[in-house]
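queue> pop job 88
queue> type: inverse folding (structure -> sequence)
queue> payload:
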């Protein structure tokens, strides 16, 4: 199983980016799809999760600014990030969990927000 994340980049504060992550390979039925991030010198933190039936949850720090979505036909999860702040700067990682409780991580994509 491979997860390929893309869409990161450099953006000014207040701008937007859209991250995507595509899963490929022999994947048992996907359950949750999530995004995490890790800023320099900090631990990796959870950002958002979308469940198999579309239930969404967000970290308080991104609620109202970020939107997570998924395309089950393409095994893809997206993260629309609006009103970006410098403190959103981090490497963003996607993660999927399957119905048989396996978990897979993507390689990360860099998001840099300048002030």
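queue> result:
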């Amino acid at each position: 199983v491979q997860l390929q994340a893309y869409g990161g980049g450099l953006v000014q504060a207040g701008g937007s980016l859209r991250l995507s992550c595509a899963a490929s390979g022999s994947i048992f039925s996907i359950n949750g799809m999530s995004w995490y991030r890790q800023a320099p010198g900090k631990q990796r933190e959870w950002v958002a999760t979308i469940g198999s039936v579309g239930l969404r949850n967000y970290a308080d720090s991104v609620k109202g600014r970020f939107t997570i979505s998924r395309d089950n036909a393409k095994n893809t999860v997206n993260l629309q990030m609006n009103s970006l702040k410098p403190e959103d700067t981090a490497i963003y990682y996607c993660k999927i969990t399957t119905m048989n409780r396996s978990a897979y991580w993507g390689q990360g994509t860099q998001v840099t927000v300048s002030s």
